[in-house]
Amino acid sequence: MQPIGPLMHEHRLIERMITLMGQELEWLKRGEEPDLRFIDHSTDFFLYFADACHHGKEDQLLFPAVLAKQDLEERYRKLTVRLQREHIYARSLTQRLEEAAHKRRTGGGTESVQAIMDALHRIVQFYPRHIMTEDKEYFHQVMECFGKDEQQTLLREFDEVEKRVLHERYQDMVREHEEGQQGRKP
């Protein structure tokens, strides 16, 4: 398995959570109350699974290894830097959502619901483009810079990060919300 396999598999789980967040946004647009338990799970998912685990593998392992390559094409160097900046932006979106939910929980009025909607909208708009860039324009292309031994080393390092973040916890969390949404109509 190439080292990018786990990263792309994680993208699929992130996409599932984004779908759920899009559904929550639609319900809020119809005037329903925010599901703060779901929002809490969403922020937890993005803080720990998407950022600490997934982006952690990229930011701490893959991107530095790519940027250390002397023969790296300039377009991939630029794309790596762009993806690093996008991860910083993604963290800020998660923080916005977390702060908006806190305001709602502590008595915030309609402005707190609007802040939740704004954060959800930004996250739902951002992540599909970010994931598509990594899947279609980046991962496979930059992996050609690495030999088989380097790829195997990256894969082992990715596994260590993954073990620390408890993958199954987040797969179960997404599955629970998907099952719970079946009775709720968008």
Structure explained in plain terms:
The chain is mostly helical and 186 residues long. The protein has one domain: Up-down Bundle (Four Helix Bundle (Hemerythrin (Met), subunit A)), CATH 1.20.120.520. The chain is 84% helix and 0% strand. It contains six helices and no strands. The mean pLDDT is 90.
According to CATH, the fold-level topology is Four Helix Bundle (Hemerythrin (Met), subunit A)
Identify low-pLDDT runs: none
Provide mean pLDDT, rounded: 90
By CATH, the superfamily comes out as: nmb1532 protein domain like
CATH architecture: Up-down Bundle
Task: Indicate how many domains the architecture comprises.
Answer: 1
Give the N-terminus to C-terminus distance in angstroms.
38 Å
Report helical residue fraction: over 70%
Number of strands: 0
Largest sheet: none
* Proportion of beta-strand residues: under 5%
Number of helices: 6
Indicate the radius of gyration in whole angstroms: 18 Å
* SS-derived structural category: mainly alpha
Helix-strand pattern, N to C? HHHHHH
Q: Given the C-alpha coordinates, what overall shape results?
A: elongated
CATH top level label: Mainly Alpha
InterPro entries: Hemerythrin-like (IPR012312)
Pfam family, one: Hemerythrin
Domain Hemerythrin-like: 6-140
Protein name: Hemerythrin HHE cation binding domain protein
